[in-house]
Amino acid sequence: MRKWMMLAMVLAPLSVAMAQEDEFGPSWPEGPGREEIGYFCGACHSLDIVKQQGLSRGHWDELLTWMSEYQNMPPLEGEERDLYLDYLAANFGEERSGGSAAMPAETRPAGPGGQQGISLAPLPIRPRN
Ligand code: HEC
């Protein structure tokens, strides 16, 4: 009898926590296109790969092109592309200081200048101009 009570006490808060968990994980910001973009970009890889970026709109644009050309991402065009770029640049833009909402600064590696959360060294696969 007491074992059951123990179990209930352990499980009850757990199920509450699970119900509150967002399907896009923590720190997927509110904004136009949030759900659509979350499903689309999360289809192939973790959204963490998106959250850890800080790119200008132009660089997001290049990255989407690169992903379509080399990673089989269905191309995004016209208004849809604008929606995506607006969302990405607004939430994961270049000017994110100290790690933004996406990741606390402490958890991000120091950038080339030794400053926390300013920029991650680009991986070799990212296109550069
Ligand atoms: C069809 C599959 C697919 C879709 C959809 C997709 N990606 Fe990717 N993405 C990839 C692959 C493959 C890689 C490279 C391999 C890896 O690092 O896992 C990648 C890598 C990335 C990277 C890392 C680039 C770097 O410099 O390391 C970012 C950022 C990224 N994707 C963002 C996005 C965003 C934003 C979206 C939604 C607009 C998206 N992806 C949708 C397949 C996809």
Task: Give short descriptive properties of this protein.
129 residues, mainly alpha, Cytochrome Bc1 Complex, Chain D, domain 2, 5 helices, elongated, binds heme C
Structure overview:
By secondary structure, this protein is an all-alpha fold. The protein has a domain at 31-94: Orthogonal Bundle (Cytochrome Bc1 Complex, Chain D, domain 2), CATH 1.10.760.10. The chain has 5 helices and no strands. The protein has helices at 2-20, 34-42, 48-51, 57-70, 78-91. The radius of gyration is 19 Å and the shape is elongated. It starts with a helix and ends in a 38-residue tail after the last helix. The relative contact order is 0.13. The structure holds heme C (HEC).
Helix/strand layout:
Layout: H1 2-20, H2 34-42, H3 48-51, H4 57-70, H5 78-91
The chain binds heme C.
Heme C is lined by residues 40-41, 43-45, 49-50, 53, 63-64, 67, 71-73, 84, 88, 122-123, 125-126.
